[in-house]
Amino acid sequence: MAKILVVDDSPTETFRFREMLQRNGHDVLEATNGADGVALTLAEKPDLVLMDVVMPGMNGFQATRQISRGVETSHIPVVIVSTKDQETDRVWGRRQGAKDYLTKPVDEAMLIQVIDGLLPR
Fold it and tell me: Which residues in this protein are found as 4-aspartylphosphate (predicted)?
């Protein structure tokens, strides 16, 4: 069972992710913006972060960059999950340090497959 941080400003999306993750045996932490996501990652050291892109204040690309380049958090995989589905968004997300990029609405089986592939055995 992994501890997964969901960073998304949509209560509906956060609820969906929480339901999927808990159904698959994971503990869920939640943050509603990028800055809180970075702070919670530092404080809680989750096993993985699911990051939205479009959020008020610090966006998901900026938060991903801080987490993936942070001394204490660079080992934590970040998966961007966004409605932004252009190839340029995917490339930019990976350049910020994201390990994968999924487009909403996310298929549960695909989400769990990506998470399982990134978590240590």
Answer: 52
Structural domain spans, the chain = 3-118
Q: For 15-35, what is each residue's pLDDT tens digit?
A: 999 999 999 999 999 999 999
pTM of whole model > 0.90? yes
**Total count of residues recorded for the chain:** 121
How far apart CA 88 and CA 36 sit, in angstroms, is 26
Which uninterrupted H or E stretch holds 87? Answer: helix 87-95
Distances, alpha carbon 11 to alpha carbons 8, 16, 30, 33, 84, in Å: 8, 9, 10, 11, 18
Which residue, among 120, 119, 121, has the nearest Cα to 49 in the 3D structure? 119
pLDDT at 34: 98
* Alpha-carbon distances, residue 6 vs 18, 30, 73, 87, 88 (angstroms): 8, 5, 15, 23, 23
In terms of Cβ atoms closer than 10 Å to its own Cβ (0-12, 13-18, 19+), residue 97 is buried
Which residues of the chain fall short of a pLDDT of 50? Answer: none
